[in-house]
Amino acid sequence: xxxxxxxxxxxxxxxxxxxxxxLEKLKEVIQxxxxxxxxxKLAEEYIRKNGAIPAFLGYEGYPASVCxxxxxxxxxxxxxxxxxxxxxxxGVDVGAYYEGYCGDAARTYEVGSCTDEAxxxxxxxxxxxxxxxxxxxxxxRLYDISHAIQVHxxxxxxxxxxxxxxxxxxxxxxxxxxxxxxxxxxRGPRLMAGLTLAIEPMINAGKYHVKTLSDxxxxxxxxxxxxxxxxxxxxxTANGPEILTKL
Length: 247
What we know:
Elements: H1 6-29, H2 36-49, E1 53-54, E2 66-70, E3 73-75, E4 89-98, E5 101-110, H3 116-133, H4 142-155, E6 159-160, E7 166-168, E8 175-179, E9 196-199, E10 202-204, E11 210-212, E12 219-221, E13 227-229, E14 232-237, E15 240-243
Antiparallel strand pairs: 1-4, 2-4, 3-12, 4-5, 6-10, 7-8, 7-9, 9-14, 10-13, 11-12, 14-15
């Protein structure tokens, strides 16, 4: 695990702010009739306009600057000509490098008016993130975060995706440690000030099983149920967690 200096954290704050601003701007434009390709274009333009570089573009061959995952798509949906319709939900994952350091965050948006179940799924995904970071204090164990997320999601009647995890982040988008969204408390490495993590609950309305489509990227729920994704980059400080990707 790579503990960041104050200077590195300051750069990551800037990267995180750019990511957060992208997600805030997308909230204003995501509505019935927009295509996922248009979402990608708007996000990339804003990232580059602010002196940053899209983190996902070209990563292990990924062909776009953001991920757009619709309805039963969990993560890594590739933007394209797909038109979003009234009642859809779409998870948008955004990453940006600024001066060599990465910020990474995701939100799931309603498209027009959604079902009550979809609204609750989105809400619980966000709530579970905050339940997790209540445990993100120096001296606690990593899986204290994981356990808190799992308890909140499952007590709400949803399931936590098991085969995908959060991660450390910094000079690289993916660093150690891996951060599962489930697990037993009081286990895993000790949390230390200066540790930066991308914590990202991925939760399903149905069962937790997922599969990857033939494009090699898009992960979907195996049972076709809806999925929601909520993510922020945080840093652990002596005074508790600080979210770097939230305005």
